[in-house]
Specification:
With 525 residues, this protein is of the alpha/beta class. The protein has 14 helices and 20 strands. The strands form four sheets. The protein has a nine-stranded mixed sheet, with helices on both faces. β1, α1 and β2 form a beta-alpha-beta unit. α5 crosses α6, α5 packs across α11 and α6 packs across α11.
Length: 525
């Protein structure tokens, strides 16, 4: 979303799964930036974009491999500050006369500690804490197999780690900076300070706000849609609702919302969503009860990718049907967020690896009769909530936990049956009620129950039972890209398990999922 009134920072994407987190850190500093994959950035692009600074992202490749991703040579002659991150450091050294190697015992994955050298530079202002009891070392998050073995001419070493002797480097004369770790992730506690120092040294004014994003998004929606009609896939979740309100502000009655009840919703959710939108928002709403269609198509399917693609295909069929009913809508609006995109397909056509298909991204059919309008595609969940507040949505609504478009289908590993869905709905309702009663709802990013593809033996009322087992999941997160499990007390878990088993027929065992993301994802499928 190019806007000439803002100084622009260019992020060249070499395929890191967390490239967008770099943009997040910059947005937190009110700096306008754009991510573009390395294979779309050439000399002409650099001239047209005219960045005030450049950041090289991380990536999975090796700089010495055949066909390794490289930046255009002209980027080093722009005369602007450049910051290289992980692979970005390695590619900078490789291009400027340094050396990168892969050697035994030099890989670092996960938490590491960087120690400062005698050399100093404002890029590290306020970064190393000499009063921390660790001799000034700072925790960072590493993820590299290759390492810089020889720095390029003109660079000096500012920090080292056990397996990265050039963990922080700088060429002060050319304003080039490079780090082997990932300052964008939360596991590098002072990473945001490094970005703050970089943009300050680059001279950014910090004038990019959510209000500016709103104005630019509205302009782009109007340019894309023109006088055509749009239908919006409304799930009742925060993402699709913010998208609907934003698009309605842009094009008014050209928008019709379609709420699809696919039979995979939580207890009472369809009634809540329809009532909320019809009572609070003055926009046309179609309530499409398609539960028989979806559940029939999912009967006997257990593969999670097939589930997602089936649901994605059916959503489009339903939307296309209602697009005709409103007089020929040619655009479909969705509340797709960046975490959906980065796990499903490469952002902007970049080289990152697909983790799983999302029903509204990788799950979409290749040939679709409508064009997509996705104004939130570059945002994280907390940014969507900030945009919702900018648009005037109430805090109580904005703070709702995320609920996936495929609904309970991906919380029901294995085959989906109406019996299992009914058990899952009632158990999930008890779980969320427990969380609310204990005042924990707002501390948790997302919480849900999942019914496992197994039955277990139990004893209830002196009799044998052979019923389903449930997994409870609750995580804390900022942006959905990384997450930690919520540390419930044993008392809470015991009380909740007892309530579920007592109140939900068909369950005799409850587990709690203590997996973080990574290595897991937030949802089970």
């Amino acid at each position: 979303m190019t806007q000439s009134t803002h100084d622009r920072l260019l992020i060249i994407d070499f395929g890191s799964q967390v490239t967008q987190l770099i943009a997040r850190r910059l947005r937190e500093l009110s700096v306008y930036c754009e991510i573009h994959p390395f294979n779309r950035v050439d000399e002409a692009f650099l001239t047209a974009f005219a960045p005030k600074a450049v950041i090289f992202s991380g990536g999975p490749a090796s700089v010495f491999a055949e066909g390794a991703p490289m930046p255009p040579k002209g980027v080093f002659d722009l005369g602007v500050p450049i910051l290289g991150i992980c692979y970005g450091q390695q590619v900078m050294m490789h291009c400027l006369g340094g050396k990168v190697e892969r050697g035994h015992g030099t890989a670092e994955f996960g938490r590491a500690y960087v120690t400062p050298t005698p050399a100093t530079h404002p890029i590290l202002s306020g970064w190393f804490d000499t009063d921390d009891g660790h001799g000034g070392r700072e925790q960072v998050w590493m993820s590299h197999g290759d390492h810089v073995s020889e720095i390029a001419p003109g660079f000096q070493v500012l920090g080292t780690s056990p397996n990265a002797p050039f963990a922080i480097t700088a060429n002060p004369e050319r304003h080039f900076y490079a780090v082997q770790f990932h300052p964008e992730v939360h596991h590098t506690p002072k990473g945001a300070k490094l970005y703050e120092n970089f943009v300050r040294l680059a001279g950014f004014k910090g004038d990019w706000t959510m209000g500016a994003y709103r104005e630019e998004a509205i302009r782009k929606i109007r340019e894309q849609v023109g006088d055509q009609k749009v239908i919006c896939g409304l799930s009742g979740g925060v993402d699709s609702s913010v998208a609907a309100v934003l698009i309605h502000e842009a094009i008014g009655d050209q928008l019709t919302c379609v709420f699809v009840d696919h039979g995979l919703l939580r207890l009472g959710e369809a009634e809540q969503v329809v009532t909320m939108f019809r009572d609070h928002y003055n926009m046309p709403l179609i309530h499409a009860d398609e539960s028989d269609l979806f559940l029939g198509a999912l009967d006997g399917i257990s593969d999670p990718e097939v589930k997602r693609k089936t649901i994605g295909r059916l959503f489009i069929e339903v939307f296309e049907k209602h697009a005709k009913s409103v007089g020929g809508a040619t655009f479909l609006a969705q509340g797709t967020l960046y975490p959906d995109v980065i796990e499903s397909v490469s952002f902007s056509g970049g080289p990152s690896v697909t983790i799983k298909s999302h029903h509204n991204v990788g799950g979409l059919p290749e040939k679709m009769g409508m064009k997509l309008v996705e104004p939130l595609r570059e945002l994280f969940k907390d940014e969507v909530r900030a945009l919702g507040r900018e648009l005037g949505l109430p805090d109580a609504f904005i703070g709702r936990h995320p609920f996936p478009g495929p609904g309970l289908a991906i919380r029901c590993p294995g085959e989906i049956t109406r019996e299992k869905l009914d058990i899952l709905r009632r158990a999930d309702a008890v779980y969320i009620d427990q969380i609310r009663k204990h005042g924990l709802y707002d501390e948790i990013w997302q919480a849900f129950a999942a019914i496992l593809p197994m039955r277990t033996v139990g004893v209830m009322g002196d009799g044998r039972t052979y019923d389903y087992a449930l997994a409870l999941r609750a995580v804390t997160s900022v942006d959905g890209m990384t997450a930690d499990y919520y540390p419930f007390t044993h008392e809470f878990l015991g009380e909740t398990a007892t309530r579920i088993i007592n109140e939900v027929q068909g369950v005799n065992r409850v587990f709690y999922d203590c997996t973080s993301k990574p290595p897991g994802t937030i949802e089970l499928e």
